[in-house]
Amino acid sequence: MAEVLKKITDFLIGTPVKIMTETARIFPDTLVIAPGIYALFTLSIPFAVMFISLLEATAAFHLFRIVGSYLGSSSAYDTRTTYKACRTGFSTTTLQDLSIFSSKVPSNFPSAPLYILSVASAYIFSSLNAQSAQLQALGPAYSSRYYISLSLLCTLILLFAMFRLYNTCDDFGVIVGSIPIGLVVGALLLVQNSRLFGSESVNLLGIPSLAGVTATGKSLYVCPTAS
Questions:
Q1: Nearest residue to 114 via CA among 76, 153, 81, 145
Q2: What is the distance between the alpha carbons of residues 80 and 112, in angstroms, rounded to a whole number?
Q3: Exposure winner among 26, 103, 135, 162, fewest CB in 10 A?
Q4: Side-chain half-sphere exposure of 13, counting CA atoms within 13 A
Q5: Residue 110: which of 156, 50, 160, 151 has the closest Cα?
Q6: In 71-217, which ranges are continuous DSSP H helix?
């Protein structure tokens, strides 16, 4: 009976832990690829632009790794190469190196999950911030998304930071350094896209531009007058 209870307990506790671990492992790659897949199926230009921007951020990630190796930046822990929860990509023997963030550079700064999550978070929040006037004009149902997204993005970054720190994947210095770098890169990418392709290229929510309407105070809809 005790053995059966132990198996049930291991299943109830172990299964969610394994799922969370695998999710954390493939999260960086999924975060980059998902906007591209969404843009392909929906023909969304803003998400296509975001996908390209995340590829740019990935290239910058490898550049930061190279610079970090020359500066002697490395974690105090070696578990990132031995513990499965600390590696990005797939966990099987044949696919464990299938990750756009895998690198043979002897540096683990910046942390791949925290860096790309910070890039995406800064990009999304900057997009909402650029549309803040329209969100306010559309009413509470839309304006609340600004604050909800800020809370959720900050919570997600905090959870991943705690996960990496708890599993000794990164030391505190790597975590503290990776997040601001990702936030700056994400914000700069949105500014770049906005200036190169216009504000509609970063309008992830697809909300209509109401700048002219709110500026003049005219109604969005004009009813025809009887002749």
A1: 153
A2: 11
A3: 162
A4: 6
A5: 160
A6: 79-82, 112-130, 132-137, 140-166, 172-197, 211-216
Q: On the CB side of 213, how many CA atoms lie within 13 Å of its CA? A: 12
Residue 83 has pLDDT above 70, yes or no: no
**Distance in angstroms (rounded) separating the CA atoms of residues 127 and 185:** 14
Could you give the CA distance from residue 159 to residue 182 in angstroms, rounded to a whole number?
A: 16
Judged on CB neighbours under 10 Å (0-12, 13-18, 19+), 190 is buried
Among 67, 216, 86, 93, which residue's Cα sits nearest to residue 164? 86
What's the CA gap between 81 and 104, in Å, rounded? 11
Q: And the tokens for 46?
A: 């803003």
Structure tokens at 219: 């109604």
Are 101 and 116 in contact, with CB atoms under 8 Å apart?
yes
Q: Compute the distance between CA of residue 96 and CA of residue 140 in angstroms, rounded to an integer.
A: 46
Ordered DSSP codes for 7-35:
HHHHHHHHHHHHHHHHHHHHHHHHHHHHH
Tell me the per-residue pLDDT of 129-167, one tens digit each, with 9 for 90 and over: 888 777 777 777 777 877 888 899 999 999 888 888 888
Average pLDDT over every residue of 51-77: 79
